[in-house]
Amino acid sequence: MDCVVLAGGVPMPGDSLYSLTRGLPKAQVEVAGMTVGQRVVDALTDAETIDCIVIVGTEPGVFVSPKIVETVPNRGGLVDNFMAGVDVLLARDPAMPIAAGCSSDIPLLTGAMVDWFTSAAHAHDAVAGVIRRDVVQAGYPDYPNEYWRLTDGEFTAADFILFRPAMASGLKARLEPLAGARKNTLQTARLIGWGLLFRYLVRRLSLTQAERGISKALELDLRILDVPHPEMGLDLDLLEHASVLERWVARR
């Protein structure tokens, strides 16, 4: 399958990462001698289940791989960049049955993790992943993070998805509010339904109920995987993440 890599996130003044990026995409931040974006591209290159890579958000040549087939300049927001990548996929193959999407700031990703995700997923409109808090803390106890508290545990999101390109092309209006709220748990719950928000607030929302609620809100068949690889959710989102990721990448 093909994979869209979102590499257009540019921290603005006031963002804690701005002191590192100074106007460049955070995918170009170096961790242990290599940019986080190139580390993600290398992992996708190593993955047996990824055939071609579409980079969205940079100029050609910033990242290198024999699997890169097209690079699309930054289109602005997260959803606009994702849709630009979907357009490339559909231009390549209008009947493409499934594709992957990946953020460019998870430098501990490996090809084996990508292959596990794609093998564990089955036929759905979209497949997302969550990682349990105890799984993250067991492997990376010094990584600061926020978690959703559900009845069956505390979770954070994996930065890798599978989706049907033809279905995704019609989702822009529904995805934009969720993309803007993705770092705010309560706002996310409100957007996908007051019933889910109430269940979340009183600690009576399960992962299965969240899966059903999001499917209903987005009008698609969503599957949420319980991911055993914490590295798929360890992104460079805060300044304090940089030193932690540097240490763990250097230990490999």
Topology readout:
Blueprint (H helix, E strand, L loop, with lengths): L1 E5 L11 H4 L8 E2 L2 E2 H11 L5 E5 L11 E5 L5 H15 L6 E5 L7 H10 L5 E7 H7 L8 E3 L2 E5 L2 E4 L1 H4 L3 H9 L4 H7 L2 H8 L5 H12 L3 E5 L12 H12 L2
Parallel strand pairs: 1-4, 1-6, 4-5, 7-11
Antiparallel strand pairs: 2-3, 6-10, 7-9, 7-10, 8-9
Summarize the structure.
The protein is of the alpha/beta class and 252 residues long. It contains eleven helices and eleven strands. The longest helix has 15 residues.
What would you say this structure looks like, in words?
With 252 residues, the chain is an alpha/beta fold. 39% of the residues lie in helices and 19% in strands. It is built from eleven helices and eleven strands. The protein has helices at 18-21, 36-46, 78-92, 111-120, 133-139, 165-168, 172-180, 185-191, 194-201, 207-218, 239-250; strands at 2-6, 30-31, 34-35, 52-56, 68-72, 99-103, 126-132, 148-150, 153-157, 160-163, 222-226. The strands form two sheets. Strands 1, 4, 5, 6, 7, 8, 9, 10 and 11 form a nine-stranded mixed β-sheet that branches. Helix 3 (78-92) packs antiparallel against helix 7 and helix 8 (185-191) runs antiparallel to helix 9. The radius of gyration is 17 Å and the shape is globular. The mean pLDDT is 88.
